[in-house]
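Milestone M4 deliverable, item 7.
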Amino acid sequence: MQYFRSNLTQVKTSLKLQASFTNNRNLATGIAFPMSTQGSLAGLKVFEALNIEYENAYADNEIKKSCITHAISLLPPFSKVLDVGCGTGIPVSSMLSKASLFVIGFDISPKMIALAKSRVKGDFSVSDMLSYTPTGKFAGVFMIFAHMRLSYRDFHAAVFKFASVLQPGGILVLGQVPSDSYVKNESVEMNSYVEGYDVPFMGDMVPIMMMSAEGQRHFLTSMGLEIVWERIDTFQPKNEKCKPEEQQYIIARKPNTNVLQPRPLPDTDLLGSGGI
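Output delivered:
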């Protein structure tokens, strides 16, 4: 067993609805996301509403900054890096740009991209993580809390896609809330991920996908990546609505060979008993 279910009715409904978001055009923005799923569009709704409020709460994160600082030390000057789900560009894209790296970033939120363009040197665009097509090879790819609203299937596809465009010796940088900090169940702790699990975020309960700390490590090493740095610590966002969060940051290096499909593979039947 590789997964855990919370709010089963909600999860069943979300899985049935995913197909209806294909070739979707968001009515508020007029932007077409040809491969969007419910999870990615839910992310648009959340972060388009928050924009600068999210930055104010999460930008001054010493744990995240220590990860980015270490990642920069592993990257050649003037190399090309990709910030997946870059938000307003603060602090990740900004730190990378100030370190003389060529930053390409994208986010599903037009308001956040407008802020990034106005303050950070780089090439920023509005796009869905699933429909975005990287061009060329990258020395580093950063996915810092960019995937929480995705299903495991979409997360699996996105990480494999972005890891595949790393140059040999390039690094993949992931940040997440490990499921261990919320799911206190021995059977779950031995498994890889949870989906549709409600956690507090900016004063609301938001259903997200999380991997366990060990599940995240195994996911990366199963691709043939080498974990070169990791930190798990507690961060308190600067917002009275926010509770302390346990956060996990990992830097993994790509070998001189192609990456493998990460494990576990997404299940065709997510409930393991004949379809939903």
